[in-house]
Specification:
alpha/beta; Restriction Endonuclease; 2 domains; elongated
């Protein structure tokens, strides 16, 4: 059984919590659903980030200089090259491969340098303003352009982070690295970087402090909070995006006022974490709802149970365990839902799970049944193999009956597998610890495991 939703660190056996790292850990088969927001560099107290923002804006504004000198073809080629940065794996693609903008869209963006006097005279202060003038430019494009122009820094940052935690590197060529002395993109050859294991493509890391779900300057925010909708249309409820963008191109002062407002409130601009725990009140509400659910499948109780546990447990166990994903599998025609967690080795207990049971990931099977049967135990037993390791958890409603508990003891005696069950009472105790913050909710699992081991021969 291969690892579920593997990350670069897991692939190399480096089991460290995302919270402990300065960069977002890349996935192999999908993008991280966050984006580089260049405003995060502008508002940063770090002199390095501010300097990188200046370099980014200078690179973008150089396109305007090319346009003014009649070198539009060169400006277009440079902008098209900058519009995608597959090496960083940010966004919403399920394949880690994006698509560059076309020549027409590049011309539309570059036309802003001629159309709007402010840009033709002194260039952009924040190039993400292009979202407010050109249709089809959104957060993923802003992020990719930023990463492309900052790729030289990202290469150095990636090398530094790899050496810090021991991620292997190998020689690769990296295309479209911007040279600030020549103002052109070039291929850099023989760089020692981490690579995708299936095709050898280079991978680049991005500082977590730059990442947001939505840019600080965005079309949706502008439209909701600043756009003079009544001025543009007598029927603002029917106002189209294209009408707003056309209006903005002829009324730059409105956009400029919006940008200045956003600059003044820069302290409210914070990076978004890769995982957010649910609030304590939500945790208590979800557990109260679980308590009220009947066992079994009537009225979709099993699905409601799985959904509530699936939302609750990742928050209770964070940051000791990073959530991988909810996983559906079938066993003899029965659909089974698991929660999969990355083992971060961040506690002595998790280190023991790796050392004693080979658990690189922790599997949690959710069962909204009155009692766990021998068949349930055998299903989970078959699933726990190879890379997933030999430690597994049931989250269920009631304690195991004696005969079933004896079956789990027999599995430990014969195969050195540990299967333990968390009940409603255990989950309730985890919620209490989550609220009080006096101890860590994972301690409940540790207690249950110790009770199990005390019964083993």
């Amino acid at each position: 059984m291969a690892l579920i939703r593997p990350r670069l660190t897991d692939h190399h056996g480096i089991m460290v919590a995302q919270q402990e790292l300065d960069f977002a850990i890349p996935f192999f088969d999908e993008d991280i659903p966050l984006y580089v927001d260049p405003f995060m560099l502008w508002r940063s107290p770090s002199q390095q980030d501010q300097a990188l923002h200046t370099s980014l804006i200078n690179a973008f504004n150089h396109l305007g200089q090319l346009v003014s000198k009649g070198h539009e073809a060169q400006a277009q080629a440079t902008l098209i090259a900058a519009s995608e940065c597959d090496e960083v794996g940010l966004g919403s693609s399920a394949t880690r491969k994006g698509k560059r903008i076309g020549e027409g869209k590049a011309k539309e963006i570059l036309a802003l340098f001629k159309r709007i006097p402010r840009y033709s005279q002194s260039g952009f202060r924040h190039f993400e303003e292009i979202q407010l003038f050109v249709d089809g430019i959104s957060k993923d494009r802003i992020s990719d352009i930023s990463c492309s122009f900052l790729k030289s820094f990202l290469i150095d940052f990636t090398i530094q982070q790899c050496d810090k935690i021991g991620i292997p590197r190998q020689a690769v060529d990296v295309e479209n690295v911007y040279d600030y002395r020549k103002n052109v993109f070039e291929t850099q050859r023989g760089l020692l970087l981490p690579v995708h294991p299936s095709d050898g493509r280079p991978l680049l890391f991005v500082p977590k402090r730059w990442l947001r779900f939505v840019p600080w300057l965005s079309y949706d925010d502008y439209f909701e909070t600043y756009c003079p909708q009544d001025e543009i249309s007598h029927k603002p409820e029917e106002l189209t995006r294209v009408e707003v963008l056309d209006y903005n191109r002829d009324h730059y002062g409105i956009v400029d006022a919006y940008v200045q407002t956003k600059e003044r409130t820069f302290e409210d601009c914070k990076n978004d974490p890769l995982f957010s725990q649910i609030p304590i009140t939500s945790a208590k509400r979800k557990f109260a709802a679980i308590r009220k659910l009947p066992t079994g499948k009537d009225d979709n109780s099993d699905q409601k149970y799985e959904k509530a546990i699936g939302q609750l447990l990742p928050s209770l166990l964070y940051p000791k365990l990073d959530f991988a994903q909810e996983q559906a599998r079938t066993d003899s025609g029965a659909s089974i839902r698991d929660l999969i967690f990355y083992n971060t080795l961040s506690t002595p207990f998790l280190q023991d799970m790796h050392k004693d049971y080979g658990s690189r990931q922790i599997t949690v099977e959710m069962k909204n049944v009155a009692e766990i049967s021998r068949e349930h135990v055998d299903q989970l037993n078959r699933y726990l193999a190879e890379e997933l390791g030999k430690f597994g958890l049931f989250v269920t409603r009631n304690p195991l009956k004696k005969a079933v508990f004896t079956r789990t003891i027999d599995l430990w005696s014969g195969q050195r597998k540990a299967l333990i069950a968390l009940t409603d009472d255990d989950v309730g105790q985890m919620v209490e610890l989550f609220e009080s913050k006096q101890r860590d909710p994972i301690d409940v699992i540790v207690k249950k495991y110790n009770e199990f081991r005390a019964k083993c021969p």
